[in-house]
Amino acid sequence: MAGNHRTQAGLFSRKDASRTRLFVTIQGVLCGLAAMVHGIYEILRGNAPIDASLSGTTGAFTIIPNYLYTGLAVVCVSTVLIVWTVGFIQKKNGATVFLLISILLFLVGGGIAQVVFLLITWGVATRLNRRLDGWKRLISEGTRKRLAASWLAFFSMGYLFLGIGVAIWLFLTPPGTPFASHSTAYLICWSALIIGLIFQPWTIVAGFSQDIEVQEQK
Q: How sure is the predictor about 161, in pLDDT bands with cuts at 50, 70 and 90?
């Protein structure tokens, strides 16, 4: 049926809200991978007890009082998150299940910083396979066309800065590395992450604008 937007025609098919789906998939996978890094760090701490939480050592919270078991739980749950994001988030109740997996990931030690990105991903995922008529009324046609044309720039710049921030966090600031207690490294890391976060709403709205253009052609 021409007006049915719940088709499952390919991962990034133009029959779906393709830019929205692309954003959700990439961001969900990256959040899962970032959480998995937390899990690996925790596993490397070995079969040792955790006093209260992991917040002071790996930037995470956990309800499991053991580093090894926490790490294993994080790796398992983050794997489920990635698989769900790639294969099932577009299905009925897919966004709700994604949110539940994200909550579980946070509770078992998947990290605090990416919570905001998981929530953004969930919010955008609720728009998958839906008409974007509300956004069409909210954004004028001229503005919508300009935003649609700028989607790739917003998308690229946002993930460039997020990538810089994550790379510094991953390679320069973990415990035991030369910059682990270097305030400048943390300043650059968080500055890059914040700039990347600022690009997120622009990327989302530009993606909606481009998807509206596709929907109007049907």
A: very high
Per-residue pLDDT averaged across 172-181, rounded? 65
Q: Where are the domains of the chain?
A: 9-130, 132-218
pLDDT tens digit string along 121-146?
A: 999 999 988 778 788 888 888 999 99
Question: What's the pLDDT tens digit per position in 195-206?
Answer: 999 999 999 999
- Are 67 and 45 in contact by the 8 Å Cβ rule? The answer is yes
